[in-house]
User: What shape does this take?
Amino acid sequence: MRSFWPIFKRELFACFVTPLAWVLVCVFLLVQGMHFYLLVDFFANQSGVSSDQTPVQAFFGNTVLLYIVLFLLVPPITMRLFAEERRSGTIEPLMTAPVSSAAVVLAKYAAALVVYVFMWAPTVLYIVILRRTGEVDWHVVGSSYLGVLLVGAGYLSLGLLMSALTRSQFLALVLTAMVILVLFILGVGEFITREGSLVHEVCSHVSVWAQMNDFASGVVDTRRVVFDGTLIVLPLFVATRVVDTWRWS
Amino acid sequence: MISVSHLTKRYGTHLAVDDLSFEVGKGEVVGFLGPNGAGKSTTLRVLAGFAGMTSGVVTIDGRDIETDSFEARKRIGYMPEAVPLYGEMRVGEYLAFRAELKGVPRGRRRARVALAMEKSKVEDREMTLIGNLSKGYKQRVGLADALVADPPLLILDEPTAGLDPNQIREVREVIKGLGSDHTVLLSTHILSEVESSCGRVLVINRGRLVAEGSVAKIKSLQRSPGIEVRVRGDGALALAVITKDADVSRVDVERGDGEALLRCTWSKKSLDAPAASERIIASLVGAGAGVRAVAAVSSSLEEVFAELTRDGAAPEIRPIGDPEGAAEDA
Assistant: This one.
């Protein structure tokens, strides 16, 4: 695990010294800023209509906006992690240094997570802006960000695994986007299956949609947290085994 | 330092390395020689811990590469064949990263990086982006990377591949200087490469060890396939003389401006090529053919391999750890 730190630093360096991370952050903030504007505009013109919705809730849940953003921006963060190193061959000097596969996987994952958090950090300003015109429940804000972090961490973990499975960055991108889409569609299954059936149970359990609605309302359900934890740990574990096979095949 | 016994590596149905066994002692500079596709890179990858083996045992400094891989890798400085590097990093940054990755303590890192850059002659490019370096410099950065943690063993996969003659000479000089502090195993497909820097040579072909010994021994196997004679005129007289010699199986004549070039090939059974050359030159001179130049046709390494593998047996295999071979790298 001693090798975690140098690899983590190098990954971050590679992200921020090339335009990729900056482009992603720019696109993300542009899109999120637009969403925020539209939501605030919508709620501002709703005076008179009593609603239990708030802009914060709509920003993090109940609308499809969040998922579009995650669907478009998570795959590019993770696509290069392993695919690029295998395509260019730099994986060979990396793996022949005294490093463990787990350290390599975790360091790369941690770097991707930092980029993700870096991307979200400026959105706290939106909440500060809301605070100037009305009341903000900071508990709900906290649980919303926790939800965003957990869901994103799961997606990033899946993206890292996809990047380890192929030498092509583009294929890693497409595979990750597909997995995220499938997870989302499974969640939608909650609304189209018969209540009480097994499929319905499964769909509602894995639903990212329902999860973000919960978290955006300030409900932190441990079942959701356990599911997200599984979504983080399992792909990382598989990725570690995949990295091991490169060394011994 | 390196002990390989019965190493076999199979890619699907393709047998890349076939029951290979050899040892490399501490302080030796050993050349790993073979034509392209002989299994050199595969073997070195297994030694460096980047490829698994189908069967066999490999130990580095007493550490098994499979069961004690981490400790074994700590003792190796490995330079892969294509020298893949991170193009977006500067030379100094990259070497500092590699030093940290290889566990060089923080306090010694700067000094180690500086020393590695000095030894591989890249100090003047410390601040250059690796992506902007020439091939020769990249090669030397790869060498500096192998050196940076001061490992006892260096494994260099074709360290001079793709370089121009000047760069090749420079890299060879660097490698020659490493022999005193490190055990070096380097692969190449060029015989003259090992001549300049290695004390002992392992010749591998189709995944098998076909010969092992000092550079001089391997070179003596490189039998010239014939001689070239340049004579005055159209060479008709010389041709008549040469074709009478029993040791010549074939003569190709190339006529030029007032002189002719005769390329003689020794017959397969001819054994004493130097004596035959003397005899032919003497009879040419005696006949007044006007000899202007004589040269031995050099044989390629592939022909040496063909010679070595012809009867399926290696003619010059000598016991491992032969003192004669070891003495020469001092």
Remarks:
- Residues 176 and 197 of chain B are 5 Å apart (CA to CA).
- Confidence is low (pLDDT under 50) at residues 311-330 of chain B.
- The first helix of chain B runs from residue 40 to 48.
